[in-house]
Design brief:
This protein is α/β, with parallel strands linked by helices. Helices cover about 40% and strands about 15% of the residues.
Length: about 625
């Protein structure tokens, strides 16, 4: 991209961020809150107050009323309460629940308010962020009812899609025409956009420049920049004077200019697409990678799972073409126990075909240390759970994050009915690039499975539906010589709640975008079924990861206990079987419970030794009990 085009693009970045100041028409702060940590005394809080004490988790609750003058308008709730949480809301006769995290902080309440409805809010919150980050001074930062300006939000997404496509395409010959389209849309807006100082300053000072507040402080830098509400170009002033006025929506002539700009941009993109049609194909699957323990204990994972599942189900209600996958039978078992109502909603979506259980294993285990018998149990208990619960077995092993793969796996996978294998981790090699992204993986006995990975220049298997990730993934796809489409998983993992509203809004705009790969929502098993087998390159033996090498020796005690548990359980089964032949009762349920305890602790951030010390306090106790009971 030459200097002139780069300067044009920079100007549009500022225009888009100014447009974000107008994402809401009205706001009404939720001021009176009640805070309780554990079984302690309740405290009264208001927005801006720090938590009076820390608990894991705490409870916050509030009541408010929809302003009467909002009758006929849509209403949302925007929150940031000091950490990740699970929120339950009633507004009139409508019930809403979902996860609270930096990427899921807005909760639709009413499509068309009557005015005067009571809104009751209850939240369970932990002072933590993504990847176990600590929120050192949690506070009730943001709580307000808002009326969205949907047309403005739509235009902002339209313009952002074109802007980000230009940045990703760089020196592509289509970029000047895309920039022309942005210029034309900006010209239409300029004819009616409010320019009064008092109006603009009020918008900035009332918090629309940084409505995410301190949310970004709990995120790694590469994730923080994904928060659309953060205005990186406007910056922060030396001091903040009082707002000169009150918030008011856009006047009708400006809203009409927004509609005209959107229509014009659609026409321009249609013409560009005729000359520069989409190139390549990506099959998209929503995904929320949930490490069952890592920088947090297992108990927190159970809360993360509930938040994530609720957020995904909420998005499915609003986006009809959204398809999601989730691995690990253990996660489903926890939700079944912890929130039966939520689990029933998951089952309905599975039956509908919108939610795809994948992987066929009890957890996503380490794939080097467990014995062959234990790995067979991972697949046996996983597949049986999916069959009994959802009426289906999985066809693809889903191991995006595991630290290398034993050459004995293909035989075990085939034995469990899994003919496909997905990973991402091999892209993390330190020295030698793994040569294939679509290949046949042959194990030590000659058994093979079809294997696939993709290389995303963005945030790895936590993909984002943005031009950089999509365009880069297609360009990096070496296997396009064998198959015309690559898989692409999207969604924030480990507490990020999976796919976001922003991703799904982007999907509608980028699915058929000029010069970009054509997008479709897909099922993992069906995608793998479409892959060729005969002409693929073949890899024989171990899939070695040139990273995390210390995982074969770190936390030696958990490795010793794991091996003891594996041996003692096999011995216990053998002796119990002999006893049962002489009339004793076979302890099947107890043996299954103990095996599942071992399988959970073979998770790929527990058994390799990469978790925090709190995890191993639980792991050591659980494995010691498994060994003792088996003996």
């Amino acid at each position: 991209m030459n200097t002139s085009e780069r300067h044009r693009l920079e100007r549009h970045a500022r225009r888009i961020e100014e447009l974000r100041l107008w994402r809401n028409a009205y706001e009404s702060h939720v001021k009176a809150w009640r805070f309780v940590a554990g079984g302690g005394e309740p405290h009264d809080l208001q927005p801006g107050d720090f938590w009076p004490e820390i608990g894991i988790p705490v409870r916050l609750s509030a009541r408010t009323v929809v302003p009467e003058e909002w009758a006929g308008l849509p209403v949302e709730l925007e929150l940031w309460l000091g950490g990740e949480g699970f929120v339950e809301i009633s507004a009139g006769d409508r019930q809403t629940a979902g996860g609270l995290n930096p990427f899921h902080r807005t909760f639709p309440l009413l499509d068309k308010a009557r005015g005067g409805e009571e809104v009751v809010i209850g939240a369970e919150v932990v002072s933590k962020g993504l990847f176990g980050s600590n929120v050192s001074e949690p506070r009730l930062e943001l709580a307000r009812l808002v009326v969205p300006q949907t047309e403005v939000r739509g235009l902002e997404r339209d313009l952002t899609a074109v802007f980000e496509a230009c940045a990703a395409l760089d020196d592509h010959e289509a970029v000047p025409r895309l920039l022309d389209a942005l210029d034309d849309a900006a010209t239409v807006l300029a004819t009616a956009w409010p320019t009064g100082t008092d109006v603009t300053l009020t918008r900035y000072l009332e918090g629309f420049a940084t409505p995410a507040g301190a949310t970004s402080s709990s995120l790694p830098p590469t994730y923080a920049e994904k928060l659309v509400e953060i205005n990186r170009h406007l910056g922060e002033p030396w001091s903040l004077p009082p707002a000169p006025g009150v918030l008011a929506p856009l006047p009708e002539e400006a809203r009409e200019a927004v509609r005209q700009a959107r229509g014009l941009l659609e026409v321009r993109l249609g013409r560009i697409r005729e000359d520069y049609p989409p190139v390549g194909r990506l099959a998209l699957t929503g995904h929320a990678h949930l490490d069952l323990a890592w920088l947090w204990p297992v108990a927190e994972t159970r809360r993360k799972a509930r938040r994530t599942f609720a957020s995904v189900l909420g998005l499915m209600d609003r986006y009809e073409d959204f398809v999601f996958n989730q691995s690990s039978a253990q996660l489903y078992r926890w939700i079944e126990d912890d929130d039966p109502g939520l689990f029933e909603r998951v089952k309905r979506r599975v039956a509908e075909g919108r939610w795809e259980p994948v992987g066929g294993s009890w957890v996503e285990p380490d794939c080097q240390i467990p014995s062959g018998e234990a790995f067979a149990r991972q697949l046996f208990y996983g597949q049986r759970y999916f069959q009994d619960t959802f009426g289906r077995r999985c066809a693809v092993a889903w191991f995006p994050d595991t630290f290398g793969y034993s050459p004995g796996l293909p035989q075990l996978l085939r034995g469990a009915g899994l003919s496909g294998f997905f990973t991402y981790k091999l892209n993390w090699n330190e020295t030698n690039d793994f040569p294939h992204d679509l290949f046949e993986w042959e194990g030590i006995d000659g058994t093979s499975v079809v294997a696939h990975t993709f290389e995303n220049p963005g945030t790895d298997y936590n993909g984002d539906i943005v031009p950089r990730d999509l365009y880069g993934t297609w360009r990096n796809f070496v296997g396009k010589r064998y198959h015309q489409e690559s898989l692409f998983s999207f969604g924030w993992g480990d507490g990020g709640g999976g796919p976001s509203e922003q991703m799904l809004e982007n999907f509608a705009r980028l699915r058929d975008f000029p010069t970009m790969p054509r997008l479709r929502m897909a099922h993992v098993d069906a995608f793998f079924a479409s892959l060729p087998e005969d002409e693929l390159p073949r890899w024989v033996g171990e899939l070695y990861l040139e990273l995390h090498r210390g995982t074969l020796t770190t936390q030696a005690r958990v490795k010793k206990l794991n091996r003891e548990a594996e041996h003692r359980l096999q011995e216990a089964e053998a002796f119990a079987t002999l006893a049962a032949r002489r009339g004793a009762e076979y302890p099947g349920k107890e043996l299954e419970r103990l095996w599942k305890t071992v399988l959970l602790n073979q998770f790929h951030d527990i058994l390799p030794g990469s978790s925090i010390s709190e995890v191993y306090r639980d792991t050591h106790r659980e494995l010691e009990e498994a060994v003792a009971v088996a003996e």
